[in-house]
Each structure stands twice: as C-alpha cells, then as structure tokens.
Amino acid sequence: MTEHDCAVRAAIEGELRLLDPEVRRSPEQLGALLHPEFHEFGSSGRRWDRESTLARLPADTDPADRYVVTSGIEGVRLAPDVVHLTFDTVYNGGHAHRSSLWRRTDDGWQMYFHQGTPFSTEGN
Predict the structure, then answer these.
(1) Which residues pair with 110 in a beta bridge?
(2) Which residues, 6 or more positions from 39, have their beta carbon under 8 angstroms from its beta carbon?
(3) What's the rounded Cα separation, in Å, for the pair 119 and 99?
(4) What is the rounded CA–CA span in Å between residue 85 and residue 46?
(5) So where are the chain's domains?
(6) What gap in Å lies between CA 105 and CA 87, rounded to an integer?
(7) What pTM did the predictor assign?
(8) 17 C-beta neighbours (distance < 10 Å), count
(9) pLDDT at 3
(10) Which CATH class is domain 3-119?
C-alpha cells in the first residue's frame, strides 16, 4: 500500500468514526478527531466551530442515530498532510452531499473542515 493510500484510508476511517453515535456522544473521542481550528458549514445551513461542535454533538446525539453512507467515500490527497473526502449520506430521510478536509497532525489525522449540502432525490 502506498503512502497516498494510507493517508486516504486514515481519513476515511476517521470520517466513519465521526458518523458513529458512540463517538459523537463522547467529547473525548470526538475531540481527538477534530482539528483545533475545525469549522463546518452544516447541512442545516449553520456554521459550527470546534467548541460549538464539542458542546452540541454529545448532548444532541441519540444512541440510535445512524447516518447511512449512500455512496462510496472517495478521497484524494491534496498535499502531504491533507486529504479531501466526498460522499453522500441519508439521515432521518434527508440526503446530503458531504465534503471534508483532513489534516495530519502530531495527534494523527483530524478533520479540519466539513460541509454538508442537502439535496433532493426527486426527479433524479
């Protein structure tokens, strides 16, 4: 496996962990995966930073919550320490295109940026 493949695989593993309700409910596990400068444009239209995400997700995540990845996650290495991932999800009947940037730090691969854009499957 090439170094490129290892970087993409590490980012995908981190992304899938962030979709796990157990991780989302744990400030420690969640915090380990979010870069100190993390920010997000959520599918709700709201903007989130690391602090607001760490306050919101553990309190708002139901143990039964499940995001379903409806397209294979694809990744590309943009720089030695940066990976870009794209995929689609379904959550509570809502569809979203997802895009995230992962940065390798001294603490491992961490999500630096995430965007969720809702879309409709009607007419497709």
Answers:
(1) 103
(2) 47, 48, 49, 50, 113
(3) 14
(4) 21
(5) 3-119
(6) 23
(7) 0.90
(8) 16
(9) 62
(10) alpha beta
For the stretch 66-123, pLDDT in tens is 778 888 899 999 999 999 999 999 988 889 999 999 999 999 999 999 999 999 987 5
Q: Single out the residue of 111, 115, 116, 113 nearest to residue 17, CA to CA.
A: 111
Which residue, 28, 16, 33, 18, is CA-closest to 72? 16
What confidence score (pLDDT) does residue 99 get? 97
Spatial distance between the Cα atoms of 80 and 12, rounded to a whole number of angstroms: 16
Between vectors from CA 14 to CA 90 and to CA 36, what angle results, nearest 5°? 110
**Secondary structure of residue 66 in the 3-state scheme:** coil
**Rounded to 5 degrees, what angle do the CA atoms 75, 81, 84 make?**
25
CB contact at 8 A, 103 and 112:
yes
